[in-house]
Amino acid sequence: MRFLVLFLLVLTAPGALIGHIPSAAAQDVQRCTTMTGESVYTDKRCEDIGAMDHLPSPATEASASASHLYRGGCSRTLSDLVSQISGAISAQDVNRLAGVYQWAGTSDAAAHRILDRLDAVVQRPLVDIVPIRPAPPPIVDDAGNVVDTNTDGYYPQTTQLPRPVGLRIVQTLKNSATPSETSFSLRRNYGCFWITL
User: Fold this and answer.
1) Are 183 and 195 in contact (CB under 8 A)?
2) 62: which residues sit within 8 A by CB, 6+ positions away?
3) Are residue 87 and residue 105 in the same domain, yes or no?
4) Domain range holding 168?
5) 110: left (phi over 0), alpha (psi -120 to 50) or beta
6) Which H/E stretch holds residue 90?
7) DSSP β-bridge partners for residue 130
8) How far apart are CA 17 and CA 12, in angstroms?
9) pTM greater than the 0.70 cutoff
């Protein structure tokens, strides 16, 4: 009788144990893509690890704010910063434009005023984004006398253009052809480009 009871326990034990072992499929491992294009496998949501189910197409990138896609990191290049500003204005997304603004040291009252100005920028149609370079040095003769103050901004072709110190957002007022311009200063912090007013 003991042998029969022991035999029945052995037969039913594996089935009981299998029900308590979590399977790999039950953990729901999924493949996510990082912003650099690398694949990551995780049991968490892709958004929780700063990745996404798939990379957006260039057409989707322009409307990234509308689809709430995560934009990992900051603008490491000036062209990326210009792209972010352009995309924010195209999508009329003040939060996206505020994401490339350097807020360090800004008071609450100043932040409200800045947000109002940024909101006005994203509401106007974009015409162009132009780099602002520092004023060129005056043209001098051999004796060191100023021949031309160079107010027209002429750089000799032998001179390398200096890096931009700001960006001019060229727009028109909403529902009109009246030109409007907003100038932002450029800041470099922690290897990233930011704009300030």
Assistant:
1) no
2) 87, 90, 91
3) yes
4) 74-149+160-197
5) alpha
6) helix 78-90
7) 168
8) 9
9) no
Together in a domain, 127 and 182:
yes
Q: In this structure, are 181 and 139 located in the same domain?
A: yes
Closest CA to 41 of 56, 55, 27: 27
Q: Which of residues 15, 37, 72 is at a domain's end?
A: 72
The tens digit of pLDDT for each residue in 137-157 reads 777 788 878 777 766 666 565
CB-based contacts of 48, cutoff 8 Å, min separation 6:
none
Kindly state whether residues 112 and 51 are assigned to the same domain.
no
Q: The tokens of 133 are what?
A: 């370079």
d(CA 184, CA 197): 5
Pick from 85, 71, 82, 86: which is nearest to 36 by CA?
A: 71
The domain tally of the chain equals 2
Answer with the one of 36, 53, 72 that is the final residue of a domain.
72
Q: Which amino acid is at 9?
A: L
Residues of the chain with pLDDT under 50: 5, 8, 14-26, 55-70
Check whether residue 105 and residue 68 sit in a common domain.
Answer: no
